Amino acid sequence: MKILVTGGAGYIGTHTCIELIQANDEIVIVDNLSNAKYEAVKRIEQITETKIPFYQMDVCNYNGMEQIFKEEKFDGIIHFAGLKSVPESVKIPLQYYANNINSTLVLLELAKKYHVKNFVFSSSATVYGNPQTLPITEDSPLSATNPYGRTKLFIESILQDFYTCNPTFNIAILRYFNPIGAHPSGLIGEDPNGIPNNLVPYVTQVAIKKLPYLKVNGNDYPTKDGTGIRDYIHVCDLARGHVLALNKLKTNCGLVIYNLGTGTGYSVLEIIHAFSKVVGFDIPYQIVARRPGDIATCYADPTKAYQEIGFKAKYNLNDMARDAWNWQKKNPKGYE
Ligand code: NAD
Ligand code: WQD
DSSP code of 59? Predict the structure, then answer.
């Protein structure tokens, strides 16, 4: 299939492009490089030995996107493009609503006009809010606690409404848990701007001594060691989940929703321990106050994705820590 990958220069997009090319799909990347560097696309080309058509374009630009649809004739779309920082979304909510929602509306309009009937959307475990029961199944109650999460919830509803009146479309909503790690080559990985918000890039920047120590946000949660528990999934496993979801769409399945997680939760202290082992010294940390809006525990029930698309994570925590560290060590300044 020929796949439009929006946001394909970003963290999850780059890893997914590699999996798609290895599965013999043809890809075209559209990214406005608002949170990525063109170097990331060159690295995908290096790993796959494949020339990748790339358009630097804002997906919200209907006319610009229409030219690309006319030229390229896609069979499917994977829509990664979006703004993703929770704290930033609280500060600039309108930009989050405008970017994340308008980009999706533009793609759906054009998908309809040009009969591109396979659509995969990057949703998030954030749509489960503060889960009341664990593990989290796809039919757990949905809620959002910040503008970023609300964009994901709105877009899921938009996709449901769109599907109701366009039932010949096939749509996969993928709810990612916490992607970490990097491609084993060490050529692509997560390259956050400024001081990282997320745990693992913070830990690896402490490990290369760019940051002095990790602040552990709270050790008084009702968890095994008091620190927050999350379902961390290797980004290459997550990427493979997209290939499996596209295969499912080829069977004319209609609208489907899958959790992409491992089903196992690790605490912040367990993450620190795993990274200390792979880097060979103790990662320095201090316990500080809870981060506002954080939940205690979140992990997936991955059964539905296993039963319906054969998805099962292959990488363990040690692999995730090793590959995240390999990327950080080889690229201390990211793609710069
Ligand atoms: P990322 O920021 O690395 O990638 C997103 C890419 O989209 C970037 O390259 C950015 O330049 C591009 N982009 C943003 N707005 C655009 C626009 N209007 N037009 C064109 N390009 C645009 O983020 P990621 O971690 O790779 O996340 C990909 C998707 O997965 C996002 O939708 C995100 O919300 C979702 N998601 C991420 C996580 C996570 O923890 N990383 C978890 C759950 C869901
Ligand atoms: C993990 C754990 C923190 C940083 C976020 C988004 C979510 C999704 C994934 C997109 C928590 C603790 C963190 C630090 C710490 N993104 N922590 N010190 O919050 O589960 O999810 O990214 O959809 O929407 O909210 O991930 O990596 O920020 O935090 O102690 O410096 O690490 O409290 O327990 P989170 P995270």
Answer: T
Q: Collect the ranges in the chain with pLDDT lower than 50.
A: none
Query: Using a 6 Å cutoff on CB, does residue 86 contact ligand 2?
Result: yes
For residue 216, the ligand 2 atom closest to its alpha carbon is 30
pLDDT value of residue 169: 98
In whole angstroms, how large is the CA radius of gyration of the chain? Answer: 19
Taking the C-alpha atoms of residue 259 and residue 265, their distance in angstroms, rounded to an integer, is: 14
Helices first, then strands: H and E counts in the chain = 12, 14
Do 218 and 294 meet the contact criterion of CB atoms below 8 Å apart?
yes
**For 300, which DSSP code?**
B
Q: Whose CA is nearest to atom 23 of ligand 2?
A: 124
Domains of the chain: which residue ranges? 2-181+232-262
Dist. CA 229–CA 309, nearest whole Å? 26
Half-sphere exposure of 26 (CA within 13 A, CB side): 7
Side chain identity at residue 214, one-letter code = L
Mean pLDDT value across the chain: 98
Residues recorded for the chain: 336
Distance CA 187, CA 198 (A): 21
What fold is seen in the domain 2-181+232-262? Rossmann fold (3.40.50)
Query: Closest Cα to atom 30, ligand 2: which residue?
Result: 216
Q: What's the pLDDT tens digit per position in 254-266?
A: 999 999 999 999 9
